[in-house]
Amino acid sequence: MAFKPLSAPSSTRYVPRISIRFHLQNPMSTFLSRGFSSEKSDLVGDVETVFRLVTTSKNLKQSLNSSGVFLSNDLIEKVLKRFRFSHGNPLQALDFFYLTATRRGFYHTPFALNTMLYILGRSRKFHQIWEVLFEIKRKDPALISTQTVQVVLARIAKVCSVRQTLESFKRFRKMGLQLDTDGFNALLRSLCQEKSMTDARNVYHHLKHEFRPNLKTFNILLSGWKSSEEAEGFFEEMTKMGVKPDLVSYNCLMDVYCKGREMDKAYKLVDKMRDEDISPDVISYTSIIGGLGLVGQPDKARDVLKEMREYGCYPDAAAYNAAIRNFCIARRLGDAYSLLDEMVGKGLSPNATTYNVFFRSFFWSNDLRSSWSLYQRMKDTGCLPNTQSCMFLIRLFGRQEKVEMALELWNDMVETGFGSYILVSDVLFDLLCDMGKLVEAEQCFLQMVEKGHKPSNVSFRRIKVLMELANKVEALQNLSDKMAAFGSSIQVSKGENGLIDMSSSDLLPC
Q1: Has residue 440 been placed in a domain?
Q2: Which of 143, 266, 323, 480 could bridge to 257 as Cys pair (CB 3.0-4.6 Å)?
Q3: What's the pLDDT tens digit per position in 202-239?
Q4: CA 115, CA 29: separation in Å to the nearest integer?
């Protein structure tokens, strides 16, 4: 039986892929096209060009006009995606989003809208989120989907109180959006992910009479339980309401059992699933593999990889990652490497999560040689590190004062675009300043700015002090100008319980 995703597909209408060219002769004129030929072949280069213009130009419209680049829906999505994963300036991304939306006959895609809202929400620009939503509702309300509601509520729930999250949900309804059970599910999912199950359960009971709970509602709530007793009680409530559990429901309960080290219950649940003609899938077995690792049985977990094939279920990368993690926790790295080789031999590609399991072990054992060797292997296989990979490496380099290795990692990041420049640069600048590498620090600073990322104020102050001592007046002025171009940072104060304390204007209409 195939795994059923919890998220519902968007119900918005089809939005045609439209291309826009900014003409030199008339910046306000547009070129509309429904397809591409040669322009598509250089899409990656065009994305890089546009991203640089957005992050460096003082007159964005004129710069885009001069570039002659066609701005298709596909290109716009990729530029916004670049902002998202590179932690770019959200207001620059918003300027780009608004500018491209002003063209007559052009409509953003749901993906572009949701990506833009995610970027703003991550930076706590909630006022701008609602401005975008009201503008989209005026121009093209069909773009606002359940996924849009999910994106916004998740970012708000992450830093705001449950009350503010609930008020934001109600604000969607005040906008005139007809939120059904899918919208209710989006609210519950946000609370399960960012708050506590108690909060989600209270909101569920508060609103369940306004929205008819369905299978997805219960699966969302089941996925958030940590206690098997509470999960079992909710599972019973589900069946009493006439909602029949599916594979996702059982996998949620399986996950609770395995994380709670209740492996006997997990095995009994597998038998119950088969009795009800529901075949456990790779997610079910991955939970069991993880649970066996928690109870100190990595060898038995490895056997599950073989046993599941007998039932016609083949391990994926996540299943192997769980088994590899078990051996790393048990400090049996030889067995972990054997599984890594077996994984490759089965035609599966290790991902950043796979390597991070090893990087974590090497970091805590202060094993620089193994970390560096694994990083080289990672590059040779074409697997891009993620931010977690970079942080394990850069902190280890900093701990052992390996400037050359740190700079090689940084240059790989600049060249390829992986990882978080902001997080890695803080550790890198500390290392370079501690070692008196002022020239290298200046170069990395300028590379970061060139990519459109603002170095932290702490890092800038450290470099500034060293430059003042070295009497590098012109270089310091240049870096100061670069920092000033990003504008002042917005200070956000924390209220009680560590929650972000925002005025009602951030979330509610004035």
Answers
A1: yes
A2: 266
A3: 999 899 888 888 999 999 888 877 788 888 888 888 88
A4: 27
